[in-house]
Amino acid sequence: MNDAVPLLTLCLLWPLLGALAIGCVRDGGRAKRLALAVAGVELLLTMAVVFGFDPSDGGYQWQEQHLWIPSLNAYYAVGVDGISLLFLPMTALLTLMALLAGWNSATRLNRFQLALVLILESTTIGVFVALDMALFFLFWELTLPPIFFLAGLWGGGAERRQAALKYTLYMLFGGVPLLFAIATLALNHAHYTGGDVPGGLGFNLPDLLNTPMDAVTQELVFFLLMLGFAVKAPLVPFHTWLPTMAMEGPAFLTALLVGLKLGLYGILRFALPLAPQAALEHRWLVAIVGAITLVYTALIALQQTNLRRLLAYSSISHVGLVLMSLAAFNYQGQQGALLHLLNFTLIAGSLMLMAGMLQQRLGSCELVHLGGLAKPAPRLACLFFLFALANMGVPGTNGFPAELLVLIGTLQAYPALALVALFGAVLGAAYLLGFVRKAFFGPTGAVSATCPDLTARELVLLLLPALLVLLVGFSPQTILAWPESALRVRQQAVAEAEAVRAASRSAPSRAAAAYQEGSI
Amino acid sequence: MAAYAFLIPLLPLLAALSIGGLHFFNLLRGEAGEKLSARLAAWAIGLAAALALGLLGLELAGNPSGLQVYGSWLASGKLIIGFSLQAGGLNMALAALFGALLLAVARFSRNYLHREPGFQRFFFILSLFAAAMLLLVLSGNAVFTFVGWEIAGVCSYLLIAYAYERPVAAHNATRVFITNRVGDGGFLLGIGLMLAWLESADWQTLNTGAADLDRGDATLLALSFAVAAFAKSAQIPFSPWLARAMEGPTPSSAIFYGGAMVHAGVFLTLQLRPLFERAPAAMALLAAIGAMTAIYGYWVGLSQTDIKSSQIFAASVQLGLMFLECGLGWWTLAAWHLAAHAVVRCYLFLTTPSILHNTHGRPIEPVPAALADCRWAFIASLQRGWLEPAVDWLLVKPILQLAKDARYIEERILDPLMGSPAPAIRAMSSLAQQEEQKMGANLSSTEDRFAQGSGLAGKLAQWTSALLNWFEYHFILRGIGRESIRVGRRLGQAANRFEHLLLRARYLALFVLITLMVALGYR
Fold first, then answer.
1. Where is the NADH:quinone oxidoreductase/Mrp antiporter transmembrane domain (chain B) (predicted)?
2. Percent of chain A at pLDDT exceeding 70
3. What is the ipTM of this complex?
4. How many Å apart are CA B314 and CA B317, to the nearest integer?
C-alpha cells in the first residue's frame, strides 16, 4: 500500500542533495541555516515514513528493490520493519540537535563540516534501511570517511588526528570479519539453492534468513558477525576507541557516535537472526561478555574525572546491559533492548552535547575546573540532572521502562546475570551522582563562576529531548506499539530455531541428513 | 466517587509541574513569587488530602471502595502492567494521614522558608514528593509503588542537597541516594521475580497467590522486598543514612524522616503480610533486624547532643520496633504504631526550632550514669557503633579498589595493547597542522624512528621486530649470561606480585561471587 512512493530513497538522497547544495552556497551563515533546514525536512520525511507505517504488519514496509550489481546478484534493496523504523526519526532528530549544538563551533571550513554531518546522516540512515547485505556493508563502511574527517579536522583535543586514525583503523579491522561473514552467507545461499557462483549468490536479508545453514557455517558466520559488530558497539576489549574519540573529537560528533548504536543494531538485526542456532548455542557467552562489559566499564567510570570520558564509559556500560538483554532471547529482553537503544539516542546524545557546551564555556570538562556550577548555570544543571536521572533509569523518565523490561528479560533467562545488572544500576547511580556532586554542587570555583547559563538556542535544542524523555517515561506504549508485531515475528523465529536445536540435539544424524538432502 | 482516587497523586504532581515549569522559565522568582508557589502547593496537597479523607469517611460509613483500575501502562507479550489504585483499607487511611501531615508541613514551610533563595525549589520538590508518597501508598501494583518509592528518594536527595553550596550537604545527599539504591535493587528484583513467577505485578495477585507459592520462592521474594524495606526505613545495616539526611531544611526532615517517607519500608512490609506469613524465615529476619536496630538506635541516641540527631535516633528505635512487631506477627499493632509515630515525630521535628529557641543557654544534660561508667559502651555510642566505617571497609573500599584496578588494566594494559596509533600518517593535514606549518612551527615533524608502525597491525609488526631484535641482542649475541638470570628473576617477581594481588580479599570475594553466580545459573 505504501510502497508506491520511494520515500526511503528520498530519505537517503535528501541529505546528500543538501550537502551538495551547501557546497554551492558561499556565505557561511546562510550555509548553516540551509543545513538546518535540510535536517529539519529530513526529520519530517522520516516522520512521514513512521506515520505511513502499518504497525500491525510485522514484515518489511516501504520496500524498494532494484538490481544493483548484476554480476554479484546484489540489489539496491531498502525497507523498514518495526525494529528499524524508529531509528530513522531518532537519527534525524539527533543530527538536527548536533547541528544546532555545533552552531558556532567551527570557524573554518564551516560548509565542509555541515556537508559532512549531512552525509553522515544519510549513510547512517542507509545502515538502518538496507535490506541487502552488500548494500548494508557499503553504507556501513561509508559512515567512516565523514567521521574520520569530522574528528580529525574539528576535534577539540590535541591528538585528534591520532584519535580519528585509531577510530578508522578499528572500524576497518571490524569490517574485515563482516565482509567475510557476508561472503560466507552469500556462498551458502548459492550452495543451498544449487545456483552457480556468482549467479546464485544472494545478499537479500529476507532470503538469507530463510536459507538453511549447517552448524559449522553458522558458527563461523555468528562469530565473524559478532566480532565485526563488537568493535563498533563497542564491547570489551574493543572499546578503547570510544573514550579516545570522546576526548579528542568534537562534542556533536561524539554525541552521534554514542547516541546511535550501530553495532548493537547490527547484532540485533543481523548477527543473532542470521545464525539462529549458533546464536542460541552461544547465548551464554554473549550474555557474559555483556555482563563483563557492563561492570568493567561502570567501574572505570567511577574513576573518571573528565565528563566526556565518563559519558563514554557510561555509554559502553549500557551497551553491555543491552547485549545481556538481547542474549536473553525472550520477548521482554528484545523489547527492553530496543527501547533502551532508542532511549539512548536521546539521553546519551543530549548528555554528550551538554558536555560539549561545558567545554565551550569553560574550556574543559575536567572536575578541577568545574564545581558549584548549579549557581551560575541553574538551567544547565537542572537539565543535566534530568538526563542523568534518565541515564540511571529513574521512574518518570524513559530509562525506567527500558531498565524494567531488560531486568525482567534477563531475570527469566539468567537469574545470576540479573543480579549483575542490578549491581550495575547501583554503580550507575554512583558514578553519575558522584560527578553531579563534584561538578554542580559545592562551592563555586573561580573558573566555573564565569559559566554563562544556557542560551535560547541551546535551551530549545535540549528541551525537545527532555520532553520526549518525560513523555516516553510517562507512556512507554507510544514507542513500544511500533515494533510489537515485528518483535513477535522475531520471537516466532527464535522459537522455531529453538525447536530445530532441540530436535537436532536428540537426533544429530537426522539434521545432518536433512542438510545433505537439501544440499544435493 | 472512588474512581476519582487518581486525583490524589495527580493534583500534587500538577502543582509540582506548574511550580517547576514557571520557575524554570523565570516566571516565578524571588519574594514576589513566594505566595503563588506556596498557595499552589498547599491547595493541591490540601485538596488531595481532603479527597483521601472523604474516601476514607465513605469507607468508614460502610461504603468500601476497592481496587480502581485505570488501564495499562506497559504491555510486553503476556505481561501487562496496569495503573490501578487501592482506594480503601490501610492504603487510603495512610494516604489521608500523610496528606494531612504534608499539608501541615506545606503551611509551616511557607513562613519558615520565607526569603530563602531556594523557596520555589523547595515547594516544587515538596509537591513532587507529595505526589510520589501518595502514589506509593495508593498504588495497586508493585511497579507504581516503586515509581513513588524512587521519586520520593530523588526528592529526598534534592532536599538533603538543598544548600548545595555546602560540600557536606552534597556529599551526604549522594551517599544517602546510593545507599537507598541498594534497596531499590532489592525492590526491582522483587518485581522481576513477581512478573516471572506470577506474570503480574498486582499486589492483590501476589497476596492471594502467596499461599500457592513454593516456600523457597516465597522466602526469596519476601527477602527481596525486605531488603528494600530495610534500606528505605533505615534498618541495620543501612541505618547510618538517616543521620546523614539531617542536612535538609527542618520542615523537609519533618515530613521525609519524621512523617512519611521513612515509614515506607514498614508500609511495604504491612502490604505484603500474606507473603511474609508464607515465609517464616523472612519473618524471623524482620524481627531480628528490627530488634537490633531498636537497640542500636537507643544506645547511640543516648549520647547525641544536637536535637535533630537525637530525634532521628529516637525515630530509628520506633522503626525498629515496628519491624519487630511485623516479624512477630503483630500486624495491626505495627500499623497503628506507624500512624501514631508519623504524627508524633512530624510534630516533634516541626517544633525543634522552637525548642532550641526556648532552651537556649541551658546546659545539656549529661549521659545516663550507666553509660558514662562503662567506657567502651560510651565510645561505641559516640562512634555510632562504627556501622558506617564497617560498611565502608566491607563494601565501598573494595569496590573503589576494584575500580582503580580496572582503570589500571584499561590504561596500562588494554589501551596500549589494542593500539594507540602513532602520528605517522602525513596524508591528512588538519587545520591545526596547516596553521603550524604556516607559522613555521612544524611541531610534529620529529624524526621517524626505525620501524615506526601505526595502528594495530603496524604496532604489532613494530613490536615483533623489536622483540626479535632484543632477543637476538640479549641471547644470541651475548650468550646465556647474567642478563637472562636477571630477566628470570624479574619475571618471578612479577608472577609473585600477580599472585599476591590475586590473594587480596576483594579478588577472593569476587571469585566467590562468580562461583555463586555460576552455581545459580546452572540451578
1. 140-360
2. 96
3. 0.92
4. 5
